[in-house]
């Protein structure tokens, strides 16, 4: 192949005049060099290239400018159908060339085109001397000498038998494909079912006439190609905007194309809706669509119009429903006993199918009836058979085919007689197992309810009627109300706090927004009031009536324990205060006594003694003020401060004086937080909490001071009685020091209680608690031993 390319390139260089051969030695000469003597005509060209042309593997013919054959190699003769022993004098002697299979052109025209345009190249069919057509590629190029004169034409022939064969096979395949397509199109367009194919984007790639006319309302079968169902649905709706029901097909149906692709298997769907204002119901079959290489290209489907069949089916179902309703009448089935023929027909069967009992015996009739009910049933049937009575009405237990016992209500009457005896008995029956079970369950539920109601350790009251009078009361409630029979009386509830001016009604208790118990005195007319915890909620009493369930819990033991606990707490606090006061006053009075004695005895100058005594008196006064501040802070002028500004001014100073090795961080909000608090009280709160944190933290520890705004919600307010709903400023001082256990944390706010023995006075947190409580706030302490302590001071904002 490489040699052939070189020869081709060399020939084209010769043909275009870029180089030529010396006549004798065949040495290539570059353009501009000349041979000695001799004209530069076609013979000159042939003399230098004859061997190359004869041995060239492709067909090659050299023509004179008049079209006469000057040289033709063997490959060209074979391609043109000539005997290699003969010569072809004129190429034009061939009858004709057929170019591209549709236009016949003579060789003269081809050669003229090559001379005028510089080249000619085309695939063609050549008629051989034997009349056969030979597919060839003909390439004609003028031969020029170094002076640029055309001295002949070079024709290169290439056989195209394989290409021609493939083209003919392709044409035959295309013809057969068109025939098959026409056949398929004709078949699809003549069937009444809708047939289509879609690509993966749900665009139609095939649609038959039924689909175009009945569903899409397309002008022909070509219009749907490349469009989706949504396109035609939108067009139909827009064509009749006044009628929203003109086209609704597929609006409430599932995406069957997507389901088919997800399942990757043939699927069946029901699709329905209005088309052209009329209801259409389709039975649709869809399957994944694969090409010949097994690649998924979309979905293929067909749909059959079963609107009439569905209407008939619905009518049949409705007819069956009406018949079933008529037969059942609420789980009722019919039965008929043909006594002479000995058959019993039950329709529908209580066991789920038709029963046809031929030649019934006593075993067949009474064998499936419960042994306890069979004698009574048999006796009633015998009275009918003997003509003693005409009707039968009884409830009994019957065993079904699963071996389960069912309650059956059966009612019948003799309708035909012969010789005074019935020949046909007919009637109805109903499975009343659910009703009987419901009756038994209701009885059991009533027993359980009564046991729970009466056995409850809490008092339970049910109030009903327009006046919400007591309609139910258990034994505990009767004991708490001091009335043996409170039914029909009105319950009264007086809050123990004594703040209410009148008793609370049950409706007010039930309408409360939160469900925390309320401590009240409960009583009724003629009864003794009792302290109780009460909860109330609305309940349904049935038949559209509402009532209130009231739960009473005896509070007398709790109040007794609470009183004892409060007394013990008071005594412990009093003991702590007395001990602390004694200790502090002794520390003050002892120096006073010493200086007084030294002043009287003259051991020290009187002025020095009086100075020391005065200092001791001031310390005693400060102790007294602190003690008073824990319970009743002094009344000062009302003042509001911005806690954000206060913290920003004081915390940096505290950070600078913090002991070495203790780190301090602090944060404040962006906006001011204004509270009702004096600057002096705020300073005392901050300094006391800071002092406690510094004492608790070891070297290397950390103290964090933060100020933030929080919104107290109803649940938080309910959990902490010192808080109410609304915005608060929260000052938090957290440390990672030694922490406190639960006992120490509970006693921390008590005056003179301190874990910093012996250096602590025990008044720091007491003062903080007293000041903050005085300003409607609270102090929350969180602490874990060996982890740290966090003290959160809640102060209500002024703009709440």
TrEMBL record:
Pfam families: HATPase_c (PF02518), PAS_3 (PF08447), PAS_4 (PF08448), PAS_8 (PF13188). It comes from the Bacteria. Its EC number is 2.7.13.3. Residues 580-799 form the Histidine kinase domain. It is an enzyme of class 2 (transferase). InterPro entries: HATPase_C_sf, HATPase_dom, His_kinase_dom, HisK_dim/P_dom, HisK_dim/P_sf, PAC, PAS, PAS-assoc_C. This is histidine kinase. Keywords: ATP-binding, Kinase, Nucleotide-binding, Phosphoprotein, Transferase, Two-component regulatory system. GO terms for molecular function: ATP binding; phosphorelay sensor kinase activity. It catalyses: ATP + protein L-histidine = ADP + protein N-phospho-L-histidine. SUPFAM superfamilies: ATPase domain of HSP90 chaperone/DNA topoisomerase II/histidine kinase (SSF55874), Homodimeric domain of signal transducing histidine kinase (SSF47384), PYP-like sensor domain (PAS domain) (SSF55785). PANTHER family: C4-DICARBOXYLATE TRANSPORT SENSOR PROTEIN DCTB, SENSOR HISTIDINE KINASE. The keyword RNA-binding does not apply.
